[in-house]
Specification:
peptidoglycan synthesis, transmembrane helix, transmembrane, 73% helix, 0% strand, mainly alpha
């Protein structure tokens, strides 16, 4: 991977990670369309460490409060009803599905699921689900009303993003809307829920890279680190913008974009302009 490629892909990762349009799909498509080839699941996971670092910075006060309350609740029964301690447990519970499914389908995630035809179908299909959820969701519930059942359902939706094109934020926000949460509440829990999953996946890929057990493209560390740093800076701005937008905006523009991209991708693969694998 060259330095210019790293700059472009870092920008793509930062711009798309938190929007419900699938960053992994965009990295896959931009790499293929530019003639660089698939940057690989390992590169994708490692650059996501950058965007997740943006989450840690943006929500640092919330995260610190949750961690402290959760640790105190481990030894003090009276603290177990604390909303922040409870949120800590809900993030752990919601992370279980993606950990289990990520380990179970690891080889497919790095190879089969990156087929551009699968990516295109996921972009279109899940955009329609998001549109439906945005129309029928009551949008009344806030995060303090989150239950263990809802946390698991959010987690299952997040796990579906193991397929590029689904979108981690899009999947979890969609589930939140179906469960009656406001757009902003669903997005905030989506960001918090992604922390253990994304950091775990990213550092696991770092470990596998050093042990030589990575499927697909090898990692060029200099450009990959540059892409990760760029993704951090851009992602921080996108988080702030998206949370402001969700106070008044709908997901319709993202739905239209996903459908157009997915159908265009299917057409380009169909006529042989892009290779699916």
């Amino acid at each position: 991977m060259g330095w210019f490629e790293a700059v472009v892909l870092g920008l793509v990762q930062g711009l798309t990670e938190f929007l419900p349009i699938s960053s992994s799909a965009h990295l896959r498509v931009v790499g293929e369309a530019s003639g660089w080839g698939d940057p690989g699941a390992a590169f994708t996971a490692i650059t996501q460490i950058g965007t997740e670092a943006a989450v840690l910075l943006y929500f640092r006060r919330d995260i610190a409060r949750i961690v402290v309350a959760w640790l105190r609740a481990l030894t003090d029964r009276s603290k177990r009803s604390d909303p922040d301690a409870r949120m800590g447990w809900l993030i752990i519970v919601g992370s279980i599905p993606i950990v289990l499914l990520g380990l179970l389908f690891q080889d497919d995630i790095e190879t089969t699921f990156r087929d551009l035809r699968i990516v295109a179908i996921a972009l279109v299909a899940f955009s329609l689900v998001l549109y439906w959820a945005d129309r029928v969701g009551r949008k009344r519930r806030e995060l303090h009303q989150l239950t263990v059942r809802d946390g698991l359902l959010f987690g299952l939706a997040q796990a579906m993003a193991l397929v590029p094109g689904v979108s981690r934020s899009g999947g979890t926000i969609t589930m939140g809307l179906f469960l009656g949460y406001t757009r902003a509440a669903a997005a905030r829990y989506s960001f918090l829920l992604a922390i253990p999953a994304v950091l775990g996946s990213g550092f696991f890929q770092v470990y596998e890279t050093f042990t030589g057990d990575v499927a697909g493209e090898t990692i060029s560390w200099g450009p990959t680190i540059l892409a990760t740093v760029i993704a951090f800076g851009v992602g921080l701005s996108v988080i702030a913008w998206l949370l402001r937008y969700l106070d008044r905006g709908t997901f319709t523009p993202f739905v239209v974009y996903r459908v157009v991209l997915g159908l265009s991708l299917l057409a380009l693969v169909g006529v042989g302009v892009l290779a699916p694998n």
